[in-house]
Write a structure and sequence with these properties.
The protein has 415 residues and is α/β, with parallel strands linked by helices. It has 2 domains: 7-203 and 348-410, Rossmann fold (3-Layer(aba) Sandwich), CATH 3.40.50; 249-331, formyl-coa transferase, domain 3, CATH 3.30.1540.10. The protein is 36% helix and 13% strand. The chain has helices spanning 18-28, 58-61, 77-89, 101-104, 109-115, 139-145, 169-189, 199-206, 208-220, 276-283, 297-300, 304-315, 320-329, 340-344, 347-351, 392-398, 403-411, and strands at 9-13, 32-37, 67-71, 92-95, 120-125, 194-198, 251-255, 266-270, 334-336, 355-360, 364-369. β10 (355-360) and β11 (364-369) form a beta hairpin. The two termini are 34 Å apart. Bound molecules: oxidized coenzyme A. Oxidized coenzyme A binds next to α1, β2, α4 and β5.
């Protein structure tokens, strides 16, 4: 079966996490992704957080499926020529070097345009133009600068970063959308263009509702769905809301049976207004369905703490899965707190290809997250990440280099 991005060739100059997530997605949609790495070393993540000596780390393998790897020294004049040949052959160059690194290599936007006017040049940077544009940035810096950390955690504690890699993988997703959009526009204009996804912007885009709340706070001085209401103090900026749901339907994380020993024996419980009467029935507080202090969403707001304490008395008598089963029968929105162990073992995620087992020549079998985006006409088969430089000869031959030329370039240290 054909793939959505069949025929699209990507010169993948990415490393670490943000860029590789983007090009991995494009590879899953069928693009030929040629990852250019530094000879001898490669992407730094190959050796980071290793669990098996001398074997590509899970950090690397889980971000670089379905790609080919070539090693080129792009600071060597002959290596630069090979890169120029690649630029002429490819549709998209994706990079997430520190600001200015591509220019220092000699590959400015103007130079790339000279070589290939159809080339789309896509970059992840920490910040867009402004006071921090020259800064190097990693995940948590972006979470802090994009508004996620100041709005995550509890009111009486410090800012907290989240485990979801919204700065890196989140920005990779944004960049991938920018690239396919630019490819689409190129079908009309015939021209390439630059695509920039700044990590601060990507995180802020995901924190959009918190900028909404900032303006609500400035206008009204309070926000009734926040746990600070009605007794706590609101300051000038959006406070951390703990586990409050943040929408119009109040929610909280509640203990379930076994919480004393299992750190994940919890459930997320939403007191959605249309099912309030059913909630009252389930927890044995039928009188709350008609009591004027509890019967309407507005009346409940000042009592949320007590309400969730009462619901928790009920959830503590059930495991999170038993509670799920009962609550789902009544259409009460809730969700178990799943550990990574439980997710890894979940059969339905294996069935849909969201969790995939991959075989690797030096590592053996390991689990990875497959393509979370399912296309009915472009199914994803996850294949292992490449070994360092595994496809150098193959790609060089496709570029028209003879075995003798390849060997000479290797002797010169260019590849
Ligand atoms: N051959 C020769 N040199 C190569 C090469 C190759 N194949 N590939 C890369 N290089 C060189 C570059 O030319 C550059 O050299 P100069 O600094 O002399 O110009 C250098 O390697 C690139 O390094 P870098 O500065 O990008 O890497 P770093 O490890 O110092 O910084 C990071 C890493 C991530 C902080 C930085 O790349 C960055 O800020 N990127 C943008 C934001 C981003 O994507 N962050 C997310 C990372 S995931 O958490």
């Amino acid at each position: 079966m054909s793939k959505a991005l069949d025929g699209v060739r990507i010169l993948d100059f990415t490393h670490v996490q943000s860029g590789p997530t983007c090009t991995q997605l494009l590879a899953w949609f069928g693009a030929d992704v040629i990852k250019v790495e530094r000879a001898g070393a490669g992407d730094i993540t190959r050796e980071q957080l290793r669990d098996i000596p001398e074997v590509d780390s899970l950090y690397f393998t889980m971000l670089n499926h379905n790609k080919r790897s070539v090693t080129i020294d792009t600071k060597n004049p002959e290596g630069k020529q090979v890169l120029e040949a690649l630029i002429q052959k490819c549709d998209v160059l994706v990079e997430n070097f520190a600001p200015g690194a591509l220019d220092r290599m000699g590959f400015t936007w103007e130079r790339i345009q000279e070589l290939n006017p159809r080339m789309i040049v896509a970059s992840v940077k920490g910040f867009g133009p402004g006071p921090y544009e020259d800064c190097k940035v990693y995940e948590n810096v972006a979470q802090c600068a994009g508004g996620a950390a100041s709005t995550t955690g509890f009111d009486d504690g410090p800012p907290v970063v989240t485990g979801a890699q919204i700065g890196d993988s989140g920005t990779g997703l944004h960049l991938a959308l920018g690239i396919v959009t630019a490819l689409y526009q190129r079908t009309h204009t015939g021209r390439g263009q630059r695509v920039l996804a700044a990590m601060q912007d990507g995180v802020l885009n995901l924190c959009r509702v918190k900028l909404r709340d900032q303006q609500r706070l400035e206008r009204t001085g309070t926000m009734k769905e926040y746990p600070q209401y009605p007794n706590g103090q609101f300051g000038e900026a959006v406070p951390r809301a703990g586990n409050a749901s943040g929408g119009g339907q109040p929610g909280w994380i509640l203990k379930c049976k076994g919480w004393e020993t299992d750190p994940n024996a919890y459930i997320y419980f939403i007191t959605q207004a249309p099912v309030w009467a059913k909630i009252c029935n389930v927890i044995g507080k039928e009188e709350w369905a008609t009591d004027p202090d509890y019967a309407t969403p507005a009346a409940r707001l000042p009592h949320l703490k007590d309400i969730f304490a009462e619901i928790e008395r009920w959830t503590m008598t059930k495991t999170k899965f038993e509670a799920m089963q009962i609550l789902n029968k009544y259409d009460i929105p809730c969700g178990p707190i799943l550990s990574m162990k439980e997710i890894a073992e979940e059969p339905s995620l294996r069935k849909t290809g969201t969790i995939v087992e991959v075989d690797h020549p030096t590592r053996g079998k390991y689990l990875t997250v497959g393509n979370p985006i399912k296309l009915s006409d472009s199914p994803t088969e996850v294949t292992r990440s490449p070994l360092l430089g595994e496809h150098t000869d193959e790609v060089m031959a496709e570029l028209g280099y003879s075995p003798e030329q390849i060997s000479a370039l290797r002797t010169a240290g260019a590849i």
